[in-house]
Every structure is written in structure tokens, then in C-alpha cells.
Amino acid sequence: MSSSCxxxxxxxxxxxxxxxxxxxxxxxxxxxxxRKANLTKEDMEAVKMHCAEELxxxxxxxxxxxxxxxxxxxxxxxxxxxxxxxxxxxxTEVSGESGxxxxxxxxxxxxxxxxxxxxxxxxxxxxxxxxxDTFPSARLQQLLHLWPSIHAKTIAVKFxxxxxxxxxxxxxxxxxxxxxxxxxxxxxxxxxxxVVDSIAGPFRADYDLTQGAVTRAQVLKSIGQELHMLxxxxxxxxxxxxxxxxxxxxxxxxxxxxxxxxxxxxxxTRLQLHRSDRMLAKHDGSKAHIAERLLEVVFSPxxxxxxxxxxxxxxxVQGLSKQTI
Length: 325
Description:
By secondary structure, the chain is of the alpha/beta class. It folds into two domains: 9-56; 63-319, 3-Layer(aba) Sandwich (Rossmann fold). Helix content is 37%, strand content 25%. It contains eleven helices and 13 strands. The chain has a nine-stranded mixed beta sheet, sandwiched between helices. It is globular and about 70 Å long. The relative contact order is 0.15. Keywords: ATP-binding, DNA damage, DNA repair, Nucleotide-binding, Nucleus. GO terms for molecular function: ATP binding; ATP-dependent DNA damage sensor activity; four-way junction DNA binding. This is RecA family profile 1 domain-containing protein.
């Protein structure tokens, strides 16, 4: 249980014995909660009231605190285009075709979150949940080697000690991880970022698109609600990588994020990455070229739709300013 939710010890013990986190208790019906935790009506009201007050407490925000509502992407150009970086709280979806740079952006965020608040980070660790491929440890090691030279003030930070990796094989395991294991870790360690790479993987494999559509939507909703709840309580940045599917349009095939409206309704900010045919010359004295990519803001409560060019280099993801293009 969150220490900020001042529950009576008796109620907390009942929830612990039932194997329920307060996030799960908030999402359950009174009948189910009473059956599983043997709580009185007054106890259930107290649980939900205390958590609701914690989640929706109205507070004035000082102007100086505005910058702490975002996690830096690790790139000043992208931060400016995204209004500060990745938003804390809510769910940011990063979708795109293979090779567009989704995982690269998430790895960079896993390092950025460990920076101090004055540098745009949270001074906290990252949880990286892999559901498809194995964790890209070789690429992470490359970034770890180069990161201190880019961010001179971070030499003392042991980045590799603050990234917690979990491999998830199926949808039920993902649900259990988000609702049980992740809350336990959040109580023990200071975490500022949760990455799910990818949200679509387990659901494409585990559910038939016709017979399992309703079940898939229910599990997706449960996972999304849990992530929103945890993000609000712990002030987390949550990034969910998504795959794209091809949809035939009038003139050409369009790529849209997978999982349909059941998932889209749970997303706060949707970013889509695109590969480009445009090649740019490297500014390192060589004759080599690098592929331009595009970051598209599809929807967001605080951003207009836009496209931002960027490249992926040895040192990470770098947005391109108008002067660079």
C-alpha cells in the first residue's frame, strides 16, 4: 500500500492477505472486494476515499514546477517540439514500423530518467518490460559508454544499476506484472519511468481476433487502468511501444497503430515514428550518410499535430532543428 494513503492497519493487512494492491482494490466492485478481502462497507468506502483524495487532490502549481511535469527525451530539439519531453502521468504511446527508432527512443528515456531534476530527469530508475524480443543489451552498453561524454555532469551516475528489466511471454503474465510485481517494486525503489516494449506483442499472439476480441479488450483495459493509476500515484512517465498495421487507403497503404480503439482510448499522447527515404550527410568529416526519420504527434492533450525530423546515431536519438535540415 502507498504510505500516502493513510489506511487503518487492519484494512491494509486484509488487503495484503488477499494479495491485493490498492490499485486493484480501487478497480474492483464492492461485491468482489468484500468477497476477497472480507472488508466491511465502511472499510471499502475508506479505502476508495483515501485513494481518490490522493489521486485527484487539487493543488496549485508554481511556475517553477512546470518543467518537472516532463521527462527529457535526452535531446533538446525533441524536448522543445514535445513541450518539454515525455509527460509524467498518463500513457505515451510510441508506435511505428520496424527500424523506425522506437526502442532507441525508449532506451534513451531509460537513461534520461536517471538524470537530476535540474537536467530534466527524475533522479530515479527505469523499469523496462520486454514482451517480444530480448532486451537490447548490446545497444544499451554502447549508449552507457558514450553517455558520460555527452552529459558531463552524470559521470558519477551508475546508469546500468538503475534499469530493471523484465521479460514477459504472454498477456496474463503482463497483467500480473503490471498489477502485482510492478507495484511491489515501486514501493521498494525510486522509479520514474516504465516502458512496455511492446504492448501489442502478447495480445496478437494470445487472442483470436474474432472469438477473443472481447476478452482482449477487457485485459487491455485492465492493464491500461493499472498503468494510469500507478503513473498518477508515483508521478511516473509511462511509455508503451506499439506495432503498426497496414490499412488500405484510397491511394496508398497507411500504417496505423495496432490494437484498435480498445487501446487507443487508454492512450494520452500518441507518437508515431516513420522511416524516410531521405539520406543526410554526416557531419563527421566522412562521406557517410544517415537516414532521416520522422516523429509525428498524432494526438495529445497539450500538443498540436506535427512532424519532427530526427536521426539515430551512435550516441542516440537526435532531433533536427530547422537550421540543421
